[in-house]
Amino acid sequence: MTGDGAGGGVQVASLRSFAETAVNWSAARGLLPPWQRPEHHPIFANFAPTPASGLSIDTDYLGVMTQSHMLPPHWVSPVFSDQPPPPRFDEEYFEWIDILESVSEARGTFTMLEVGAGYARWAVRGWAAACRRGLDVRLGIVEADPQHMVWAKSHLAFNKVPAADAMFFEVAVGTTRGRTVFVVDMPPDRPGNNPKDWYGQALAWDNPLESDKPQRMYYGKPLLELPDQWGGVEVEIVPLEEVLRPFDVVDLADFDIQGVEGKVIEASVDILTRKVRRLHIGTHSREIDASLPRVLGAAGWRCLRAYPCLRWNRTEFGWIEFNDGVQTWINPRLAGESSVDR
Known about the structure:
Blueprint: H1 2-28, E1 58-59, E2 65-66, H2 93-105, E3 109-115, H3 121-132, E4 136-142, H4 146-158, E5 166-169, E6 172-174, E7 178-185, E8 202-205, E9 217-218, E10 221-222, E11 224-225, E12 231-239, H5 240-244, E13 252-255, H6 261-275, E14 278-283, H7 286-298, E15 302-307, E16 311-315, E17 318-322, E18 325-330
Parallel strand pairs: 3-4, 3-13, 4-5, 6-12, 13-14
Antiparallel strand pairs: 1-2, 7-8, 7-12, 9-10, 11-12, 14-18, 15-18, 16-17
Helix pairs in contact: 2-3, 6-7
């Protein structure tokens, strides 16, 4: 019985894998319905684009400008002649929806936390959308890579975000306070081994004291030699509760933390439930795709959408290829709460 059951499980998994491979192959070639051009989400109608003809710098739908030295090719905004078009139908389209809906639902003040911020492109988009509605803005920007944190501050200043509107946390979030190594350097000769092209740095080495310190520096910090010629910098880890402490209520918490989102959210679900109205989570494994619904569902959160990573998914906007997965969760306890006087 046990052996037969195990064999049956392997067969089911194999069939699922075959079916997913077939779907991915067909979707990538446009062979699956629907075939008509999708309409954009109605939330974009509430945030009309600003004419920006003649600008030579990358400009997105909300008029946020990005300097070329920090912009990888896969994040370049669509080309336009007189005004920016809505964003492309890709995995990031749902992040746009979450930002614009969160801003639309905010009252008085829009508060956003971006965890794993890179150069804080989503936080600045949240600020730009909130300014359209005349809201006050509070931003929390969490980023462990020292170069990306410099760029985040530059990106805010370049787009004229007032310094008083943002708090910066140059830390990694984890389940407990401590120190670890943040991987920032690939082995030699690997393509994309620079801060502009690689925004997928992650916590992967638990004991920095076992690593040697070479003679070169990484943007002001010693670069530690890691196994297989990877390199990292020592960073501070803080629980998410410490980052949330300055904020009473957060309209949107946006997570892109490269594989630790499951552990961090499970360890922080109580404080998230007390303080956060909406979560946008980029997922980085099928195990995390499966674990978040168990954790957040048990805490009373409502899932608005969940698309697994590393596959094509059918969405309301057609078939879209997902590298990172996407999950959006609404906190019913705070969904109707006004943000006035935060």
